[in-house]
Amino acid sequence: MKKLFFDTEFTGLHQGTTLISIGIVADSGEKFYAEFNDYAITQVDDWIKNNVIANLNRPNHKENEWIVVDTSVIVYGDTAYIKQYLEHWLSQFDKVEIWSDCLSYDWVLFNQIWGHAFDIPKNIYYIPFDICTLFKVKGIDPDVSRESFANMTDDSRKHNALWDAEVIAECYSKLMS
Fold it and tell me: 119-177: per-residue pLDDT in tens?
């Protein structure tokens, strides 16, 4: 089963939060990154502005657009547009399991792209896995800096969903070796 490591950035730690970006890295190297333009701007506070929006590739992009670079797909647009490209990207894999970090919000928001958990693509295993739990099982404090643990320190990219997904993938690799 293919492993996909993913992260999202969103408008806050509350029930009505909305997606700002999503990054996914497959264990075989393929990548997907999207920035949403239909998130709830009214929910964006100074922290999100300075730490998330500031690390987007194109923070004011309003048009729907997709780009392919090597094995990476990059999409800018609204949720419906991003969903099309995400479904297409996911279809290259027979069966996948999803890994994230502190995935409570990530998994709910991922499912919300399709409107309901029962509507996610059928090749996605319905049980997500959390890197935090893996740290705990391996006897490592789950509050450890992921970037330090993965030897991937680049503070200028922190809180960019694709960068965070790459860090999660490296943490998983290191924890499992």
Answer: 999 999 999 999 999 999 999 999 999 999 999 987 667 789 999 999 999 999 999 99
Torsion of CA 79, 106, 18, 71, to 10 degrees: -30
Q: Specify burial of residue 73 (Cβ count, 10 A radius: 0-12, 13-18, 19+).
A: buried
Distance CA 116, CA 156 (A): 34
Three-state DSSP at 111 gives: helix
Per DSSP, the chain holds a count of helices (H) and strands (E) of: 6, 7
Burial class (CB in 10 A: 0-12, 13-18, 19+), 25: buried
Q: Are 73 and 85 in contact (CB under 8 A)?
A: yes
